[in-house]
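Students often ask what a holo structure prediction actually looks like on paper. The answer is less mysterious than it sounds. You provide the chain, you provide the ligand, and the output is a string of discrete structure tokens encoding the 3D arrangement of the protein together with zinc ion.
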Amino acid sequence: MAETLTIRRPDDWHLHLRDGAVLKSVLPYTTQQFGRAIVMPNLTPPITTTAAANAYRNRIVAAIPEGVSFKPLMTAYLTNGTDADALAAGYRDGAYVAAKLYPAHATTNSSAGVTDIRNIDGVLERMAEVGMPLLVHGEVTDPAVDIFDREAVFIDKVLEPLIKRLPTLRIVFEHATTERAVQFIRQAGAHIGATITPHHLLLNRNAMFQGGIRPHHYCLPVVKREKHRLALVEAATSGDPHFFLGTDSAPHAVAAKETACGCAGIFNAPTAIELYAEVFDSAGALDRLEAFASLNGPRFYGLPVNQQTITLERSPMTVPDAVALPDGGEIRPFRAGETLAWRFVT
Ligand code: DOR
Ligand code: ZN
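The corresponding structure tokens follow.
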């Protein structure tokens, strides 16, 4: 009998589902494994109103496969013009569970993001008052700052001063990629957390250039040096409740990735929990996977843990080569065609 691992059903605290045909194609991968997901608002146009969030939620719910229980948790996209009253009302009424800060031009569909965090001081004050979590894409966008340093500079120049100004604001530092982020989050209060992706746990920056340019290993923040990957593995597998699962699964059509100026994003949803299991297994910490995947996130968000369980089995599985789109395009999953050690069973 193969070795099995049963844990409480996990949640994905950072996910891109897109819309339309892509939403329908990618959503079943997530709903199969996860009970809930924090859905990123960087559509075109971005989700900036409760009406847009409710309509998007309805489109997601309509795309959930028959008989599957899954709850999308919606987020608001902050802009220089976000209205604090409207945002707080959306949080109070349950239209949003959090708001996302994209520094303008930091990543995919972020051009409507915030050009200077001081432009939204009033919004952030209100969020602190009402307890609404702020989810941050933690990178500065100054082109003079080396792309590998943008996260550390963000922590020094933006995040630390923000926490000093608003010490009670609940913050999730999304997709942490550096030792600096790990150290910073670890010493922060329980109202500050961080998500960690499977790809940042499995890749270092060599993976982007292995034998040639590898567009399917390009995401933002970019994967960093090996010492940073090791710090992330240590944080995720330590059991420290500051750290929880967020895949940042970000599908783009192959044609948009394999081109002269390819999009950032790694589509890991088809095998997300298997990838995390591999990381925890390699670290000798399978007993801590449940805390990271299924307990720490709900605790941070003040939500109940899932009652169902999932089971993984130590037996080889091959990652699908591609997910077909109705327009004839396809999306390449992370590790397409490769064999993983753990397999999601049910
Ligand atoms: O790699 C990324 N892809 N990073 C992000 O911050 C956004 C995401 C996307 O939406 O494609
Ligand atoms: Zn993301």
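The chain has one domain: 4-344.
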